[in-house]
Amino acid sequence: MGAWPRPGLPGDPASAQAPCRSARGRRGPGRTCLFAQEIHLSKRHEEIVSQRLMLFQQMENKFGDQNKKKESQIQAAETAFKRNLSLLKDIEAAEKSLQTRIHLLLPPEVVSLETLYWASVEEYIPKWEQFLLGRAPYPIGVENQNEAENTIRNKPQQ
What we know:
mainly alpha
């Protein structure tokens, strides 16, 4: 909105009227002058009230549009959540089915090794996770890594 005072409001030089003169030539408000000012102020009041009403209607329309958009987004999020949950259940069912088939075909020693492997992986995940995210140093000391490499190199020689 513009700067104060606004056109048409008291104190605005653009809307200032020439001083009224009475029929006898004296300065000061006469009845017709006061009546004209009253009419002018009444029209200006009507303009302001109608502009205010128009702005309120625009605000209500915008608020209604925002609410509709928000409701639509909420509905879309709920639909996506349900779809994702259904997909996750399907994936878990397929995984369980595949694991059951694999375990039926594998000898018990392999199943035991697999179980130990995954237990080991789960044990080391927290240590490696911080390293892979760049928040911690290499989880196994450099000395241990070098020792492991030396052991692997020396084993075939023996």
